[in-house]
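ugh ok fine here u go
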Amino acid sequence: MTYLEIASEVARGIPVSLGVAVGGIAIGCVLACFLVMARLSRNIVSRFLSWLFLEVIRCIPMIALLFLLYYGLSQFSAVRSSIFWPILRDPLWCAIIALSLKACAYISEIYRIGIMSVPEGEILAARSFGFKGFRLYRSIIVPYAARIVLPALSNEFVVLIKASSLASLITLMDITGLASGIASELFQPLPALTVAALYYLIFNTLVLSAFQYLERRLAI
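structure:
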């Protein structure tokens, strides 16, 4: 097979790879908002439970989390008979859930650092003008924190996109899965894996470019 033929074949896995990466990161970003609220809560139980979740998810390797969700949970009859089984038996959803849990854990810490970086004086001044609750976050805290967290978020997004390639280990035919299959079939791993690497390079370059654009906009 020529490089063009290999590129065309591996490209069939792009929708799957994008589904895992975009779905996992998007869900993780939303869940991270709730997790950071629990981390910053005055309730000691909420802080402890959110800390425990964070430590457990951060310490479990992505590949172990994938295997636990896809292969491990299926060993329990209660799971197989539950309403969640149609989702948990699907490797695509297991990959999205695993990536979203990882994204939630790491991104929540980035959010927390950004929120804590807002000067106390600015918050007190805003409250003196009647800003509180959602309005305080929307108008004062989020715009200030965004400038701080964007570089870290861009790096984390790149890491998560690369981590999504592990989904091929639970039978998903994404970019990495198709490239590995072609490499095994042709006994020439270099062409297929080079094509896969180029696709990920393109995705991550686009992501970094988008973040750089946002950083320039916020700097104005």
